[in-house]
């Protein structure tokens, strides 16, 4: 079975820009800021469409679930991972995703995600977790006083770094980050603070303070990023119950094929390019591929290439 690539679904966001055009040479719709490109998604409100067949991801799973996901996969279940590119030209809201137990209470979905920093401006930063010693009482008072920022753990970042955000971790992406986000298939986000900003319609965006306060882990102090790795051929960036993400450095002519223990994988090209077989399609930086359980081909590195490989997101 061949690799599967999907057409991107672009989302306008007030904090977005046109970075994807400059970085990856993509043709973006309209002139408004594009904040997200949904690269792989199987949700009622959004369906990835295969570039080769024109079928949606949902149709592919219904018709070929055993070949794509493995013989034990229930085709009625949605694809468990959502892959996005995020153009954070401006700061995002301060937000949280609910842990599983809280999500059920709030009629939402848990979302654990990993951010890989593909590019940054010199002054780029992330906001993740709280400064050591901050209490829930401090936090609630700061919301009322509109003075949250001094309580937040903000730190500079650079390309190649990454961080895992499990459900319940307070976070915001500061301006100047181009991020590959690999996450649970969920779209539940609670905004606790939006820096006084207005949306594209000129109105203040909705906040979810009550839900956020129920979801935030108030013992999550000053988490650290996983540093950039340029020397090892393979390193693990994130490992959690929902998925594993490895960074792979390829040298010219290196071949990447199916693992010995068959399972579906997602391969995200971050730098360089990979070719399908000796004369097949070339996948350049920015491409995200679904490598099915029954994939029997190989990808060959042209020059040097760096990619992320996501696996262990389904029982096989």
Automatic annotation (TrEMBL):
<dbReference type="GO" id="GO:0005975">
    <property type="term" value="P:carbohydrate metabolic process"/>
</dbReference>
<keyword id="KW-0413">Isomerase</keyword>
<protein>
    <submittedName>
        <fullName>Mannose-6-phosphate isomerase</fullName>
    </submittedName>
</protein>
<feature type="binding site">
    <location>
        <position position="113"/>
    </location>
    <ligand>
        <name>Zn(2+)</name>
    </ligand>
</feature>
<dbReference type="GO" id="GO:0008270">
    <property type="term" value="F:zinc ion binding"/>
</dbReference>
<dbReference type="Pfam" id="PF20511">
    <property type="entry name" value="PMI_typeI_cat"/>
</dbReference>
<dbReference type="InterPro" id="IPR014710">
    <property type="entry name" value="RmlC-like_jellyroll"/>
</dbReference>
<dbReference type="InterPro" id="IPR051804">
    <property type="entry name" value="Carb_Metab_Reg_Kinase/Isom"/>
</dbReference>
<keyword id="KW-0862">Zinc</keyword>
<feature type="active site">
    <location>
        <position position="191"/>
    </location>
</feature>
<feature type="domain" description="Phosphomannose isomerase type I catalytic">
    <location>
        <begin position="6"/>
        <end position="106"/>
    </location>
</feature>
<dbReference type="InterPro" id="IPR011051">
    <property type="entry name" value="RmlC_Cupin_sf"/>
</dbReference>
<dbReference type="GO" id="GO:0004476">
    <property type="term" value="F:mannose-6-phosphate isomerase activity"/>
</dbReference>
<dbReference type="InterPro" id="IPR046457">
    <property type="entry name" value="PMI_typeI_cat"/>
</dbReference>
<dbReference type="InterPro" id="IPR014628">
    <property type="entry name" value="Man6P_isomerase_Firm_short"/>
</dbReference>
<feature type="binding site">
    <location>
        <position position="97"/>
    </location>
    <ligand>
        <name>Zn(2+)</name>
    </ligand>
</feature>
<keyword id="KW-0479">Metal-binding</keyword>
<feature type="binding site">
    <location>
        <position position="171"/>
    </location>
    <ligand>
        <name>Zn(2+)</name>
    </ligand>
</feature>
């Amino acid at each position: 079975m061949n690799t599967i690539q999907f057409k991107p679904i672009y989302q306008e966001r007030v904090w977005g820009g046109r970075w994807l055009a400059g970085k990856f040479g993509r043709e973006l719709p309209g002139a408004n800021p594009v904040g997200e490109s949904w690269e792989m998604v199987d949700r009622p409100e959004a369906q990835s469409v295969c570039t080769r067949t024109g079928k949606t991801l949902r149709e592919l799973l219904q018709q070929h679930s055993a070949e794509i996901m493995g013989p034990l996969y229930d085709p009625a279940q949605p694809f468990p991972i959502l892959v996005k590119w995020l153009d954070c030209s401006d700061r995002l809201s301060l937000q949280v995703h609910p842990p599983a137990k809280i999500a059920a209470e709030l009629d939402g979905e848990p979302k654990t995600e990993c951010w890989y920093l593909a590019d940054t401006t010199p002054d780029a930063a992330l906001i993740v977790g709280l400064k050591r010693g901050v209490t829930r009482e401090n936090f609630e008072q700061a919301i009322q006083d509109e003075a949250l920022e001094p309580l937040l753990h903000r730190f500079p970042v650079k390309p190649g770094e990454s961080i895992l955000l499990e459900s319940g971790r307070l976070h915001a992406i500061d301006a100047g980050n181009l991020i590959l986000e690999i996450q649970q298939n969920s779209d539940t986000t609670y905004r606790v603070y939006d820096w006084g900003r207005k949306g594209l319609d000129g109105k203040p965006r909705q906040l979810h303070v009550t839900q956020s306060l129920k979801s935030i882990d108030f013992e999550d102090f000053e988490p650290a990023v996983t540093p950039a790795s340029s020397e090892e051929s393979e390193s693990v960036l994130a490992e959690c119950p929902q998925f594993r993400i490895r960074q792979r450095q390829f040298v010219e002519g290196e071949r990447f094929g199916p693992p010995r223990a068959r399972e579906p994988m997602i391969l995200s090209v971050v730098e360089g390019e990979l070719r399908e077989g000796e004369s097949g399609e070339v996948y350049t930086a920015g491409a995200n591929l679904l490598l099915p359980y029954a994939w029997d081909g190989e990808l060959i590195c042209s020059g040097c290439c760096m990619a992320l490989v996501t696996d262990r997101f389904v029982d096989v």
